[in-house]
Amino acid sequence: MSTVLKKLGPADHGRPMTLEEFMAASSVEGYHYELIDGELYVSPEANLPEFRVENWMYFKLGLYAQEHPRVINFVANKARVFVPGRRRVTTSEPDLAAYRNFPLHRPIDSVRWQDVSPILVVEVLSLDDPDKDLVRNVGLYLQVPSIKEYWLFDTREGAEQLRLQVRRRYRGQWSLRQFAPGDTYTTKLLSGFTLVLDPRS
User: Fold this and answer.
1) Under a CB-based contact definition with an 8 Å cutoff, are residues 99 and 108 in contact?
2) What is the side-by-side strand order in the sheet with 74-77?
3) Residue-wise pLDDT tens digits, 80-127
4) For a Cys-Cys bond, which of 10, 87, 126, 167 suits 150, CB 3.0-4.6 Å?
5) What is the pTM of this model?
6) Which residues of 61-75 are buried (b: 16+ CB within 10 A; e: fewer)?
7) Are 139 and 111 in contact (CB under 8 A)?
8) CB under 8 Å to 111, separation ≥6 — which residues?
9) What is d(CA 39, CA 15) in angstroms, rounded to the nearest whole number?
10) What is the CB-side half-sphere exposure of residue 143 using CA atoms within 13 A?
11) pLDDT grade for 4, boundaries at 50, 70 and 90
């Protein structure tokens, strides 16, 4: 017999849950919910400045995907990334995830998050829970073999003074590069992609 769960909220942070319970549960709006090592992880949703940075990046990557579908052909906001090798089910939910060879040809209802894994994940630093992006996710995303880069946008000096941390997979570890406001970032992972660190651009 399945257990009927009450609506989840911030008081449930740390609550043990199965994947089935997590997928079936309803939740209080205004919070972000993840399943990390079989426990519920609750964090506040992005404030408007953080959301605008996320939205800016979503359109940049989405346009690139339309023009370069052989490099990436699908960009998701609030994707579920299943992390292998954890003691219990772990589904981190990056702000953005970009996929190569996403099975767009398959019936929409036949593809689950468990079936796909991104090559790039993007987070806008949570000002209310910075360790989630600066510490926890650094380790989790390294455990996902398909992820080649992890971009973290830092708005602690204000969204218009945006900084970027880029972690590239190199010999089983992350190689870290940092970029200041107004800098330009290019990467071999996304051939032809140019990013100027100005969310108004």
Assistant:
1) no
2) 74-77, 96-99, 120-124, 149-154, 163-170, 173-179
3) 999 999 999 999 999 999 999 999 999 999 999 999 999 999 999 988
4) 167
5) 0.93
6) bbebbeeeeebbbbb
7) no
8) 103
9) 5
10) 15
11) low
